Amino acid sequence: MKYLVTLKPRSKFFFGGDRTFTSQERQNYYAHSTYFPQQTALLGMLRYALLNEYGLLEKEELDKEKLIGSTGFDLNSHAYGIVKNISPVFIVEKQHIWLSAGLDNQDKISLKLSSDKNLKIDGFDPKKELKQQFISSDYTQSIQPLDYFFLDTPQVGNAKERNGKTLQDAFFKHIYKSFKRDPANYESRFAFGLEIETTEKVELTTIKTVFLGAESSFTVELTPSKGIFERIQSINDSLKDKGANEHKIILLSDSYIEDLAVLKNHSSFILTDAPTPFRFNKNKKSDYYKSITRSNQYHLLSRGTVIYPKDIMKVTEILDAAKAFQTIGYNHYQIQTR
To answer: Which Pfam families is this protein grouped with (predicted)?
Structure first.
């Protein structure tokens, strides 16, 4: 069974990863929200929602295991009870699904093969930031930048004790995110979305609000999915044997690469942004919110990265090798003609 999970923010939101201002390891004076939640947070939200739906929140661990698995994200496992997999998070606008477009969609930047089959890049300035772009999955809308969807919402202040005394190092500035609103009704024009695949029919009737990030709540809705990522995978499979010189690979999600040097050896060129830092709770309880310790930090290739492969089969094998990551929505990609 495949479903679309839609998460509509009820107000501003903050996703921080290792930079969140609620971190127990450190408090940051200046903290800037990321645009998207981590896939591990989405997995945790989904597991919690299922426990709530089935009335198992207060039950023993063995009662929960069949429904949501025995652990949260685990590098050595990709079994989460009835949840087979989840897709990368994307943006929903009414009937449109917005996915990451390649970082090669920049003003004045041109990437093409020369007559001698070498890759030629024109107009690239390494001092200028590459802008993330998004494209509708049905290709009926123009490519749009992040500021088409998002607004920054700053908040400044200082933390105080109950008696009014200012705490040491308590002054802060936090930059929240919010979606742009529809001027007609002042509701959010956009929502986050993800596809999930389950082994059995699922409904969410008892829970309408979920929490992600710091002080961020979302209205959740579960509807049948149109199989967006299944179609993308079908196209990928049909293009893999057509030859690397005619195609490029767009990362639709942040992606873990075990050995970046091997990927570079099989690629003519990789256009990417700063890597995305990634850590996860090494939680041995099925209750996702009971963290124990944190993993080492990984560095993921950012969504929108464009890979021009020398050997398209080798490159896709490298991306597909990280099964644990791929199961929860990382390491997803789309093969396109150059």
So the answer is: Cas_Cmr3
Q: Which three-class secondary structure state does DSSP give residue 326?
A: helix
212-269 residue pLDDT tens:
988 789 999 999 998 899 999 999 988 887 666 678 999 999 999 999 999 999 998 8
Cα R_g (the chain), whole angstroms:
21
Q: Give pTM, 2 decimals.
A: 0.87
| CA–CA gap between residue 33 and residue 19 (Å, rounded) | 8
DSSP states of 4-24 as a string? EEEEEESS-B-B-GGG-TT-S
Closest CA to 284 of 273, 295, 276: 295
Strands lying side by side in the sheet with 166-179: 30-32, 166-179, 150-160
User: How far apart, in Å, do the first and last CA atoms of the chain sit?
Assistant: 34
For residues 291 and 301, which has the higher predicted lDDT (pLDDT)?
301
Domain ranges of the chain: 2-337
Query: Which residues are bridge partners to 77 per DSSP?
Result: 74
Alpha-carbon separation of residue 29 from 34, 112, 155 (angstroms): 16, 44, 11
Token pair for 113: 């093969």
Q: How far is CA 68 from CA 86, 126, 230, in A?
A: 13, 45, 23
What is the rounded CA–CA span in Å between residue 308 and residue 292? 40
Q: Cα–Cα distance between 17 and 33 in angstroms, integer?
A: 9
Pairing, β 144-145 against β 333-337: unpaired
pLDDT at 167: 56
Question: In this structure, what are the phi and psi dihedrals at residue 47, rounded to the nearest 5 degrees?
Answer: -65, -40
pLDDT tops 50 at residue 23: no
Range ranked top by mean pLDDT from 120-129, 134-143, 197-206, 258-267: 258-267
